[in-house]
Recover the amino acids of this structure.
């Protein structure tokens, strides 16, 4: 699949791959987790495709396994979306588990935690690209943090139509957060982090949730 996608887009866009091995929601039954050998096999298969990074190829707490994989991988490794608290991110950095750290302020411990991770990333010559796959408010929070980051600003933009569109994702915001024609999302300039709640939508969706 990855090879076919790469053939279709060529070098016109950067392509990242998410292995989704950090944690599992086993809705449809047990799913085999990757071993280090599985991850190495996958990395080798991708190595000639010019992938920008591989996300979460092992369990999120397998710091040593990730470190071993990173040393052998020709592809940068990214992760951290479900890690929680500063001690875990220090473990990631101390073990040299990832090249790109991806805390989500709504899941990892808040904006202050993410700012501390950014500081550690910059001190250790790593990169920061936050996970944002929650909702419009979560996207704005992480977008604001990315705006304060001094290096390349690569934003994960949650989009999976028809079920997950900006209008659905940002349901209680006055306006959805959209990508411009050049593929950029602007950091809000309003006070705070730029959240503008539509009170009527909030009331409507709150009632629906209550009725369920």
């Amino acid at each position: 699949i990855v090879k076919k996608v790469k053939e279709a887009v060529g070098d016109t866009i950067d392509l990242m791959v998410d292995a989704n091995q950090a944690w599992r929601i086993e809705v449809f039954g047990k799913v085999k987790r990757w071993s280090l050998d599985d991850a190495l096999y996958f990395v080798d298969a991708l190595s000639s495709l010019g992938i920008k990074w591989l996300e979460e190829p092992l369990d999120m707490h397998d710091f040593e396994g990730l470190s071993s994989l990173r040393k052998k991988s020709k592809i940068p490794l990214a992760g951290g979306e479900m890690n929680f608290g500063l001690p875990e991110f220090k473990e990631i950095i101390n073990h040299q588990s990832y090249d790109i750290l991806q805390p989500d302020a709504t899941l990892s411990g808040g904006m202050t935690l993410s700012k501390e991770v950014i500081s550690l990333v910059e001190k250790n010559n790593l990169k920061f690209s936050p996970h944002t796959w929650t909702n419009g408010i979560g996207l704005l929070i992480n977008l604001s943090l990315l705006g304060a980051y001094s290096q390349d600003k690569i934003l994960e933009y949650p989009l999976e139509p028809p079920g997950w569109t900006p209008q659905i994702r940002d349901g209680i915001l006055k306006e959805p957060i959209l990508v411009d024609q050049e593929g950029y999302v602007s950091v809000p300039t309003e006070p705070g982090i730029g959240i503008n709640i539509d009170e009527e939508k909030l009331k409507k969706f709150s009632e629906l949730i209550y009725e369920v």
